[in-house]
Amino acid sequence: MTESPAACRFQSFSEPSDPSQVAPRVAALRGALAAQGLDGFIIPRADEHQGEYVPAHMARLAWLTGFTGSAGNAIVLADKAALIVDGRYTIQSAEQTDTAIITPTKLEEMPLERWIEANLSAGGKLGYDPWLHTVDGVIKLEKAVAAAGGTLVALKANPIDALWSDRPAPPAAPVKAHRADFAGESTASKLARIQEALTKAKVDALVVSDPHALAWTFNIRGGDVEHTPLPLGYAIVPREGRPTVFLAPEKVTNEAGDAIGAVGEIAAPAKLQTQLEALGAAKAKVRLDSATAASALATLIAKAGGTPDAGADPIALMKARKNEAELKGARDAHLRDGAAIVRYLAWLSREAPKGGLTEIDAVAALEAERMKTGLLKDVSFTTIAGAGPNAALPHYRVSEASNRKIEPGILLVDSGGQYEDGTTDITRTMAVGEPTDEMRDRYTRVLKGHLAISRVVFVKGTSGAQLDALARLPLWQAGLDFDHGTGHGVGSYLSVHEGPQRLSKLGTTPLEPGMILSNEPGYYKQGEYGIRIENLIVVEERVIPGGDRTIYGFETITWAPYERALIDVKLLDAGEIAWIDAYHAKIWSKLAPLVEGEAKAWLEQACLPL
Fold it and tell me: Cα–Cα distances in Å, from 506 out to 314, 499, 500, 501?
């Protein structure tokens, strides 16, 4: 690679928000609410599936407030309005909205429910869209509104939709069959397992409201949202008999239609309500996924005489435990992705010190290297490329407005690719020029925490919450920490953020063989620099001679060298050094045949023993 490309196929750097539109839009919303006799309305960032990415026509929060972050809620009353976001988005929310009209509010200091209690007038009527809130979410809202002396009102139509004159059309991406050799299990086999779980749970049917679960169960993929190959739709799986999949028929390719038709029926999304009411009329007990199912679904079932049962979707755990075909696909994807990363890192090591690169250049160059594989379907999320102080923002996204030159110091790049056989996610932190002693100390402490997770063995039944502290201990010993989880689950050509497995203080699901997780501790010095090191790991069973318990450990499947210039070897013990040397030796053996020229020469030096 001689120069970085100017454009990306899968990412853009424009900032779509326009704060000048906030005042007239909020005024129009207030007028619409007053006409309905309402005193306020809640605008979540969610769509009806509670997804990480929402299609453009569901981005109501962004349309009203200008805020484009991945999480948040707005609430508009007649005389005040708030945009409630977590600490990741404190700065972004203030920049993107009109703060004279909407007050950015930190979730940690004032959650939505507490804001309602403090600001809704007694007797006030607060509206909400029941398709955008879960059953549990509505219960919390009801308590808050009651505490304020008001009434929570479920609306039949979202008032924003009538105001949004240039609202985009719903996505119409084709729904395709996922290759059997990548899926590793037939839809019929998956349905049999799901129906067995429904029998054990003593429920009559399951509403599949999570598009990830829909895609996994029926071995289909789509393109309705950014960076994740999802078809947006629903399914109803009865305890016995054939399921029904609710997808716009015109989106379903012949191959996917034939595959679904072999095991179930396909119906238009408009038929969902009719089937839910039929289940209710039959007095059925219907499982709804507490994490993703809209409150509206429960209301339809209950009003018809059935029993909505909000709880865990059994598909989530099945999907999390990857089969051998999915694991092979993940390993294969990480090999080709690793070769692309090595070519990129070699280019970066040569070009960054010259001083001409920007963060956008770094993003575009990496996407270009992945494109050269010929198999990239998308990036798995918008690439994070933070130089200097931008690296201290864990969820930074470069825009044309924020784009920094890459100068001496630290560059953090967190990225991933979507391939049909697997989803990748890797973070590497690079030194540009000579790092400071403090940078090397912090990097090495992060690396030690990363290695602690890589090397740990643990007894069956252990959860991510029980392991999370291992990644933090080297930082804690220096009075430091990081404010995100250590790792998240990863899907198989699905979402790069998959539950229920995770390495975090909140990760209560026991880790089981086949689960893929990220291992990504970090350190962030606000206004100066940030460090994160991330590999993907797979839970696997280990045999320990003389042991009498089932023991698990992690297989690392990401292949890219650590940054030698940032490693302070004096802070590492012999076991850590041996692990790094062995890992680098494996990288050389696996990737050397896949790269050539300057990239191969760079890799050889990067993989030398410490």
Answer: 20, 12, 10, 10
**Which pLDDT does position 14 carry in this prediction?**
84
Distance of alpha carbon 284 from alpha carbon 238, whole angstroms: 10
Where residue 484 falls (left for φ over 0; alpha for ψ -120 to 50; beta otherwise) is beta
Strands across the sheet containing 384-387: 384-387, 409-415, 426-432
Distance CA 180, CA 328 (A): 13
**pLDDT tens-digit map of 159-179:** 999 999 999 999 999 999 999
Contact present, 130 and 294 (Cβ < 8 Å): yes
**HEC secondary structure over 240-266:** CCCCEEECCHHHECHHHHHHHHCCCEE
CB 237 within 8 A of CB 243: yes
| pLDDT-flagged residues of the chain (< 50) | 1-5
Structure-token pair, residue 319: 């999907």
Q: CA nearest 307: which of 335, 334, 339, 285?
A: 285
Tokens of 94: 């203030």
- CB environment 297-321: b (16+ within 10 A), e (fewer): bbbbbeebebbbbbeebbbbbbbbe
User: Could you tell me if 338 and 559 are in contact, meaning their C-beta atoms sit under 8 angstroms apart?
Assistant: yes
C-alpha span between 548 and 570 (Å, rounded): 37
Does the predicted TM-score (pTM) go above 0.85?
yes
Q: How many CB atoms lie within 10 A of CB 573?
A: 10
- Alpha helix stretches (DSSP H) within 496-559: none
C-alpha dihedral sign at 504, 507, 510, 512:
negative
pLDDT, tens digit, 9 for 90 and up, residues 450-471:
999 999 999 999 999 999 999 9
> What number of CA atoms fall less than 13 Å from residue 512's CA on the CB side?
13
Give the integer Cα–Cα distance in Å for 302 and 22: 38
Tell me which amino acid residue 75 is: I
Map residue 421 onto helix, strand or coil.
coil
| Per-residue pLDDT, 89 | 83
Q: Which domains does the chain have, with CATH numbers?
A: 19-163 (3.40.350.10), 176-320 (3.40.350.10), 324-600 (3.90.230.10)
Work out the percent of the chain whose per-residue pLDDT is above 70: 99
What's the rounded Cα separation, in Å, for the pair 171 and 388? 38
Are 228 and 496 spatial neighbours (Cβ–Cβ below 8 Å)? yes
For residue 452, give both structure tokens.
């602690």
**Would residue 407 be called left, alpha or beta, if left means φ above 0 and alpha means ψ between -120 and 50 degrees?**
beta
pLDDT at 6: 54
**What type of residue is 306?**
G
Query: Measuring CA to CA, which residue among 59, 451, 462 is closest to residue 226?
Result: 59
Give pLDDT, residue 4. Answer: 39
Question: What single DSSP character describes residue 483?
Answer: S
Closest Cα partner for 301 from 389, 167, 206?
206
> What is the average pLDDT value for the chain, to the nearest integer?
96
